[in-house]
Amino acid sequence: MKPRQTTMLARRYVVLALLAVPPAYAHDPVFGLGPHTLxxxxxxxxxxxxxxxxxxxxxxxxxxxxxxxxxxxxxxGIGVPYVRGTGDSGRGPTSLSTKYRFWRNDLPGAQxxxxxxxxxxxxxxxxxxxxxxxxxxxxLLGLAYGYEGRxxxxxxxxxxxxxxxxxxxxxxxxxxxxxxxxxxRFKPTEYREPDWVWMLELNYEHTEHLSGVSxxxxxxxxxxxxxxxxxxxxxxxxxxxxxxxxxxxxxxLAGDQEADDYRAQIELEWHL
Length: 272
Known about the structure:
This protein has one helix spanning 3-20, and strands at residues 43-54, 57-69, 74-84, 89-91, 95-107, 110-121, 138-149, 152-162, 175-184, 195-214, 217-236, 239-253, 262-271. By secondary structure, it is mainly beta. The chain has a twelve-stranded antiparallel barrel.
């Protein structure tokens, strides 16, 4: 075989190997939704904590999630949170979720994919906690796109949450979230080396406008909020840490609602 033919054949094998082997670095954004799924039979143990602060009120939600890869494109999970607020604390509502990756485009050193997400937030939790006052389950649907390369990342997602009414008949507003995210790995690393990916997210949140009476006084809820959210993800083989903070850019909230001062999140992931 001629040297030129040998070189061309070697290049083909390299390209085929890149296409056949999934990327070692599979990431999702900190606040947005990504298309990442597990391999078939894979297990993900996930611990996360989310904090919000608005003026004198602060709430923290910590959640334990367990996910299982039904196939290489389909994952199912369950989450159990604990919520601690300014005036009340207790176990939050259990969530059941599933994500299906319906499109994947493998490129040399990169991958594009898209997935749909469905989540049901059960009507359980501690009595007396605000989220336990719902008269039925809540539901969330989402669509996510992602591009993951050796250096550059980009994601886009949209989610819509349908909230059930409260036990006392008061309406609870639906929410729509849109996320645009860019990421960069400044220095490409190998699988066994620590890896850093830096992210910057633009998050939009729309809350349905509703008006009614609360404790005998008129109330208005709903509006729009925009956040700029720097974040990062550190991985070492099958373990990852994600952290980020949402900083308010603009808000247009109805009535006398208080805008968030910040939102912060940290997550630990372990793939088995």
